[in-house]
Amino acid sequence: MNIPKPGLPVRGSKTGQPIMALLDLLGRSWAMGIIWHLYNGPSTFRGLQDYCESISPNTLNTRIKELRDCNLIKRTMEGYALTEYGEELFELLQPMGPWARNRWTESFKTEDPNSL
């Protein structure tokens, strides 16, 4: 399994720039969804599977392993939870939600529909 880590080649960066390694990890299916869900508190594998709806058990296992190996989530007595780094990352990403929903979405409303 090729887990994106700073200093190693990743999608978009042969030198493994830290931001590119992070974006590679977060760009994987359901990675951000898992982080988003765990910000509300610990969750079991089954809880994550229900939250992610269409995710296969294999993909969920892979994503959990990647996020654990990258120090963003951990296993607790209650299930999986964000680490300190995972919480910090969520707080950095969270403002992007309203921005994307409002400001960025607005930009598409002003485009000429014939130019798409």
TrEMBL record:
Keyword DNA-binding: yes
Swiss-Prot/TrEMBL keywords: DNA-binding, Transcription, Transcription regulation
Keyword Lipoprotein: no
CDD domains in the cross-refs: HTH_ARSR
Domain of life of the organism encoding this protein: Bacteria
GO biological process terms held by the UniProt record: regulation of DNA-templated transcription
InterPro entries the UniProt entry points to: ArsR-like_HTH (IPR011991), HTH_HxlR (IPR002577), WH-like_DNA-bd_sf (IPR036388), WH_DNA-bd_sf (IPR036390)
Molecular function as annotated in GO: DNA binding
Residue stretches making up the HTH hxlR-type domain: 17-108
TM ranges: none
One Pfam family here: HxlR
Protein name (Swiss-Prot/TrEMBL): HxlR family transcriptional regulator
